Amino acid sequence: MPTLQQPLMIVTDLDGSLLDHHSYSWDPAEEWLEQLQQHQIPLVICSSKTAAEILPLQKKLGITGAPFIAENGALIQLDPSERIRLPADSADYETLCHRLSLLQSRYRFTGFHNFTDREVSAMTGLSEADAALSRQRDASEVLVWRDSEEAFASFHSELTQHNLTLTQGGRFWHVMPAGSGKGEALRWLLSQQSGEPRVTIGLGDGPNDAPMLDAVDYAVVIKGYSKTPVRLTRQDLKHIYHTAHYGPEGWCEGLDYFLT
Hints:
This protein has about 260 residues and is α/β, with parallel strands linked by helices. The chain has nine helices and twelve strands. It has an eight-stranded mixed beta sheet, with helices on both faces. Strands 6-7-9-8 form a four-stranded antiparallel beta sheet, covered by helices on one side.
């Protein structure tokens, strides 16, 4: 088991993990967050949220300037001056939305760029100001699917022809460049780290977290609300823990399990 005295890195999803699925509060995790700061253990956010959403959250958490992974791994910020899309040659958000608009004549779906801030707020429970930040996207689009399962399979196939892929988050589907994802982004980020390698503990609750949880040394699968289970490919079961609690309570439970 890892210890707080080792060089560690905590990699965390936000919604439904560090943040409560309904209230977006992290109050139950305050004690652990303080411990991580006291031991100078980096906290790397790996989320479906946008960079515009993560930056003010980092400030509130006291980790301003730390690297983070946004938009399910389609965007990585190494430091305040360096932000990259993954893969590096992937299309920007405007181009991605244009490609999706060409498919809307054959499939019934709505993207975040089609909604207003008020509509996104009503769907997510975010304030209108925070909903506006969620719509400031750089590399991926969020979809509300309104068509059949059969049409969805065809839609997925067509996206592949455009070098795009789909991943399921806690609430919505996300269209991303092929070759991106939380696992790919985390492995790339770790390859850029200098100095002594850190033992990584990852925490997530949704199907889109599975690649990230497969890429860390120790994985905490937080009990979630998604109907789709979190399926990991790794076989080292002693390095995987499934929590009994949701959200930040489960987040603390996972760190308690591996670090105390």
